[in-house]
Amino acid sequence: MITLRSIPVHAVLATLLFVSHLCSAQTPVRPPIGSFFKSAAFSGAEMSPNGRFVAFRVATKGSRATLGVLDLDTMQPTAVAAIDGVDIGAFHWVNDKRLVFSVTDLRIAEGERDFVPGLFAVDRDGNGFRRLVETDFHYLKNTDEPNILPWNTFLVGVPGTQESNDVFVMLYEGYGKNVDAFLRLQRVNTKSGLSTFVDTPDYAHDWLFGPDATVRTVVTSIGKRRAVHYNDPASATWRKLAEFDSLSGDAFKPIWYGADHTLYVSALNGHDKSAIYRYDLSSGKLAPQPLVSSNDYDIDASFIHDKGKLLGVRYHADGEITQWFDPAMLAIQKEIDTLLPATSNRISVGQRSQTANVLIDAYSDVQPHSYLIYNRDSKKLTKLGMAHPDIDPKQMGTKDMVRYKARDGLDIPAYITMPPGGIKKNLPMVVMVHGGPNVRGGRWEWDRETQFLASRGYVVLEPEFRGSTGFGSRHFKSGWKQWGLAMQDDLADGAKWAIANGIADPKRICIAGASYGGYASMMGLVKDPALFKCGINWVGVTDINLLYTVRWSDLSDTTKKYGMPMTIGDPVADAAQFAATSPLAQASRIRQPVLLAYGGVDERVPLVHGKKFYDAVRQGNPNVEWVVYGDEGHGWSKPENNVDFWSRVEKFLDRNIGKP
Q1: CA 404/CA 412 separation, integer angstroms
Q2: Is 648 helix (H, G, I), strand (E, B) or coil?
Q3: Mean pLDDT confidence for 143-147
């Protein structure tokens, strides 16, 4: 049973002092591996709607992550919530007095967990605690508490109105049964626990709420068809705005609904890059000119607002950009950037702010996230805490966006992280391949895996190969059915670019990645044996056919029927291509050293992928290292397992490409 325990105020204050003390602590010349992979000490902060309080999650060495609230008038912290045996997970303000939060466990592997996140509510002074959602893996309640929702219920959002104690949750029907899920939206009172279902069209998801806490738009999905529906305030009825194939060029995604009943959407609108447009709800047309656009990047923005007024939008280009429409917020951003010139400074205010307080999340490629408060009137800057205070930015490697040409002329973006120190030429290099693969892989911020490798002297190249999202429709669609083909060539072309520019030693390049990245790493050894001297694959796909045939994975039938045949290929029509681009089928060609690591309870890429490949590749290759983390899923959750795995990576790279 998960039970609430009290935490004294002095413990929270001591934690904040502990974090601040570590900020100035001396660190070794070569940071120890544990400093990269330990849980964050200060792992998030959120301003209350009125701007008078900041909720934060913090943990000292050896303690669980707890929830606290800082009064910005008195600068006195209050211990709000701690749960025996687990850590506080995500948290959000419901209103100026009340918060909701989930739970997790940062010390154990996924397979060891016997609970789900649940949902809890508590007042900012620690009173009024209520369990809203069960944490046990059963549909029947195991508690006598009234009005508890079943475990397969998850937070969607908060209405955001001052007088409301409600939140929105979704009941995930079919979740955990390896079938397509059916989502049902509910509104829950965090005081009483009473809930009511919200009337929306069937098969709805991606709910968008208006300032009046009413669901205004939803997206519905049936097969490969998607539709956008609008809850018209004039008629109080739902009407369909548009319908399209999910991967078609005329698709659009609702982003924000303003107080003036203006709908903003992300759409291609006949262009290669998606942008943010106003959508005319009467005519069903997009505005002629976008609100936010880029020549190089898709724009999928989050909106920053106060009292329903649009202040600005935040999106990711080569790094994160905040485009302010409000002159006062633009001026504040400039003030803060002057005070903190070495970091990217993400600022936020309360949605109904009554104070001059601004919350800052400061970070860079070499500095983990750090949280501060800035008062616009007094111009005072106050440190709250750091995620990884024992990381010294001077010992980290710089990260930049570069672009190179693929062999067919396609422009390939990539992040490159150089190791710290003066030598920048003829270095050993790791080509790190992101998973997905139809996602954007990298971000300009501190990354523990990349920085660990850089701290050991390696250049890290992270290509955004074709098929990656965020770089336009052409870039995305040119990766369709290109597993092991043009997608693979993009990685080799990136390595050759680094060699041609004198960055990488051609005799010391390794390819590595997880999930799809693991697949591409093994295919790199098959296709380009002279280029890649070794390969690292963790939780990687080893045969495309297995994605279709293994029934106990978490890939839905709809994904296999509609999405994968278009983006990856059809098992029947593309059988010859699948065989030619299967690391499992081509395992006998791999002679380079290989490190393989898999999770014993991985439902995304089940262990059979690794076992079959390991058995095949070691028949003709004596240099194969194999490790299974029995309780881990699709990646490593347990700090000890991360340290063990990356220690193996360090030794593996040192043996194979570490020496000139």
Answers
A1: 5
A2: helix
A3: 71
